[in-house]
C-alpha cells in the first residue's frame, strides 16, 4: 500500500504534489518522493521519512515544471535501505521515464530473469517497482521499433506490461518530452482515480490513489481508472484513454474499505465512510442474534478507523457510544510500522485510556480488524487497567488468516494471529471476555451496497482465494521461507537483503 499522485497542470505543480502527498500520507510513512518535468528535464527529490520531513523549501524550489508525480512509500518488513528504494524510480532509455507504483508484483523473480537474460536491462534494487519500470521501458522500446513514439505505441507498451506482469499495480509514470501515463492492473486490485480542473489557461488533470486528494486540491472527480485501462495526458494537456488488457474485471481490495483508505474517500464508486457505517450495522445484527447474552454498558472505538463502525453499531444496539481512548496523532499507524517490537512499543505511546469511561463497566471495544494482535492485546489490557469489569472485543472485519501478496504487509501465516487458531483461542490470546468477528459475506455485502456492479472483491487475506490465480501453496511457502529467521526479534529490524515480494 502506497500513495501515488500525478498532475498535468497549467502552472507549477510542486506545491500541488506536496499537498497531495500530505493528503495521502496515511498510505505510506516510510519514504516520499516527487519528480517534476520541465521540458525534457526531470527534477527529482526523494528520501526517507514523512512528506513534511523529506521536503524543505530549497528542495521545492528545485522542483520546477507544470507536470509531475509523487509517491508516499509504505514500509514493509524485509525492506533494505528505504532511501535507496524510495520512489519514483528513473531510467534513461528509451526517452527517459520515471515511475511510481502502488501494489505488489507476484512474479518479480521471473521478470528479473527475463529483464537480465532477454531484455538486457539492469535492476539495481530489490523493489518490484523498479522491475515494473524496466518492463514498461522495454515494452516502449519494442513498440516503437526505432520510430517516433506516439499514443498508439504507448498503449501497446502498456498492453505488453499487462501480459508480462502479474499481481496488483496502480501506476503513474512520466515519459520525457511526451506526458503523463497512468494505468491499473487488469484485476483492479489497487485504487486509482482521475480528476480535472478547469482554469483560465486550460484544463488540468490529476490522478491519485484516493479521491480525497482530488477533493482537497480543487479537482472534480472524473472517474476511476478502469482495470486494465491506460490514461495518457500529453504535455499540452490533451487526454487519451484506452483499454489495454483482455478480459479485465474489477476486483478491488476489500481491505481498502476496512482500514487502508481515508473515510472521506470514494473508491470505485463506494464511499469508504458509508461502507464502514454498514459494517457496524451488520456487526450489531450479529451481536443481537448470537451474543445477546452479553451485557454491554458502553461501546468504545479504537481510534481512528473504527469510529464509523462503532458509532453505527452502538446506535443499532441502543447502547451509549463513548470515546474511551485519546490518540497521540504524532505517532504513526501501528499496522504499517515495520517490526513487531516497534509496533508493540508504539501502542502505549499512541493511545491513552480515559478512566471514567471504563471503571466498573462492561465495555465493547470495536476495531477495524485484528491482524497480528499486538494492538488488540495491549488495548484490552489498558481497558482492564482503567477499571473495566469485562472487556468484549468486536472486529469490523473477519479473521485475517492468510498472507496478503498484493501490497499489504501481511506476508506470512506465522505472523497472523488468526492462523490455525479458533475464535475462542484468539479471544484468549488477546485477553478479552468475548470476541465477535464480522462475517465475510456480511462485509462484502456492506461494501458492495453502494456499487452493485462489483461482483467480486479481492478478499484473499480473509478467505485465501487469490484473485490473480497465480498464488500457489508453494509460492506462499517460498515467501515464508525467505522471511523465516531474517527478522531480529530483539529490535524488529529486518536483516533480509533479498525479499523477492515487496510492497511498492
Quick synopsis:
With 504 residues, the chain is α+β, with helices and mostly antiparallel strands. The protein has helices spanning 14-23, 51-54, 57-62, 108-117, 128-144, 151-164, 211-216, 255-260, 272-290, 307-317, 340-350, 374-385, 423-430, 440-448, 460-463, 473-483; strands at residues 3-8, 31-38, 41-48, 67-73, 89-91, 97-105, 167-175, 179-184, 193-199, 202-208, 220-224, 229-234, 239-243, 266-267, 270-271, 298-301, 325-327, 351-353, 362-367, 390-395, 434-437. Helix 4 (108-117) crosses helix 5, helix 9 (272-290) crosses helix 10 and helix 9 runs antiparallel to helix 14.
How is this structure best described in words?
- The structure is a single chain.
- Helix content is 31%, strand content 23%.
- The chain has 504 residues and is an alpha+beta fold.
- It has a 7-stranded antiparallel sheet with strand order 3-2-4-1-10-9-11.
- Helix 4 packs across helix 5, helix 9 (272-290) crosses helix 10 and helix 11 packs parallel to helix 12 (374-385).
- The radius of gyration is 23 Å and the shape is globular.
- Residues 485-504 have low confidence and may be disordered.
Amino acid at each position: 500500500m502506497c500513495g501515488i499522485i500525478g498532475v498535468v497542470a497549467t502552472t507549477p505543480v510542486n506545491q500541488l504534489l506536496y499537498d497531495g502527498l500530505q493528503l495521502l500520507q496515511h498510505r505510506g510513512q516510510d519514504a516520499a518522493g516527487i519528480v517534476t518535468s520541465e521540458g525534457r528535464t526531470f527534477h527529482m527529490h526523494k528520501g526517507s521519512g514523512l512528506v513534511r520531513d523529506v521536503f524543505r523549501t530549497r528542495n521545492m524550489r528545485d522542483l520546477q515544471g507544470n507536470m509531475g508525480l509523487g509517491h508516499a512509500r509504505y514500509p514493509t518488513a524485509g525492506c533494505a535501505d528505504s532511501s535507496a528504494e524510495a520512489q519514483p524510480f528513473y531510467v534513461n532509455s528509451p526517452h527517459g521515464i520515471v515511475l511510481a507504483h502502488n501494489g505488489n508484483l507476484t512474479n518479480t523473480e521471473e521478470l528479473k530473469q527475463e529483464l537480465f537474460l532477454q531484455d538486457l536491462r539492469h535492476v539495481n534494487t530489490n523493489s518490484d517497482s523498479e522491475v515494473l519500470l524496466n518492463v514498461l521501458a522495454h515494452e516502449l522500446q519494442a513498440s516503437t521499433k526505432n520510430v517516433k513514439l506516439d499514443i498508439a505505441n504507448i498503449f501497446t507498451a502498456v498492453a505488453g506490461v499487462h501480459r508480462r506482469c502479474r499481481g496488483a499495480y496502480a501506476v503513474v509514470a512520466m515519459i520525457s518530452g511526451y506526458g503523463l501515463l497512468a494505468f491499473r492492473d487488469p484485476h483492479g486490485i489497487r485504487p486509482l482515480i482521475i480528476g480535472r480542473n478547469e482554469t483560465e489557461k486550460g484544463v488540468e488533470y490529476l490522478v491519485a490513489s484516493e479521491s480525497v486528494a482530488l477533493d482537497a486540491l480543487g479537482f472534480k472527480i472524473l472517474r476511476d481508472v478502469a482495470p486494465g485501462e491506460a490514461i495518457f495526458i500529453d504535455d499540452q494537456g490533451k487526454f487519451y484513454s484506452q483499454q489495454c488488457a483482455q478480459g479485465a474485471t474489477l476486483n478491488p481490495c476489500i481491505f481498502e474499505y476496512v482500514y487502508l483508505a481515508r473515510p472521506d474517500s470514494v473508491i470505485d464508486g463506494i464511499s469508504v465512510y458509508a461502507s464502514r457505517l454498514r459494517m457496524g450495522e451488520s456487526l450489531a445484527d450479529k451481536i443481537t442474534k448470537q451474543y445477546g447474552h452479553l451485557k454491554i454498558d458502553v461501546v468504545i472505538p479504537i481510534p481512528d478507523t473504527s469510529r464509523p463502525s462503532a458509532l453505527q453499531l452502538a446506535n443499532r444496539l441502543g447502547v451509549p457510544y463513548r470515546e474511551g481512548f485519546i490518540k497521540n496523532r504524532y505517532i504513526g499507524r501501528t499496522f504499517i510500522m515495520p517490526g513487531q517490537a516497534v509496533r508493540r512499543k508504539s501502542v502505549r505511546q499512541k493511545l491513552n485510556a480515559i478512566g471514567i469511561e471504563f471503571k466498573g463497566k462492561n465495555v465493547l471495544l470495536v476495531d477495524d480488524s485484528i491482524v497480528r494482535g499486538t494492538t488488540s492485546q495491549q488495548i484490552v489490557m489498558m481497558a482492564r487497567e482503567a477499571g473495566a469489569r469485562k472487556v468484549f472485543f468486536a472486529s469490523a472485519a473477519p479473521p485475517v488468516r492468510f498472507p496478503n501478496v498484493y501490497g499489504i504487509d501481511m506476508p506470512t501465516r506465522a505472523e497472523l494471529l488468526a492462523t490455525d487458531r479458533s475464535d475462542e483461542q484468539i479471544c484468549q490470546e488477546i485477553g478479552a471476555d468475548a470476541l465477535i468477528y464480522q462475517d465475510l459475506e456480511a462485509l462484502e455485502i456492506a461494501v458492495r451496497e453502494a456499487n452493485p456492479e462489483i461482483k467480486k472483491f479481492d478478499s484473499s487475506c480473509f478467505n485465501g482465494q487469490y484473485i490473480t490465480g497465480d498464488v500457489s501453496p508453494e509460492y506462499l511457502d517460498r515467501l515464508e521461507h525467505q522471511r523465516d529467521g531474517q527478522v531480529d526479534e530483539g529490535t524488529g529490524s529486518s536483516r533480509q537483503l533479498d525479499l523477492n515480494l515487496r510492497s511498492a
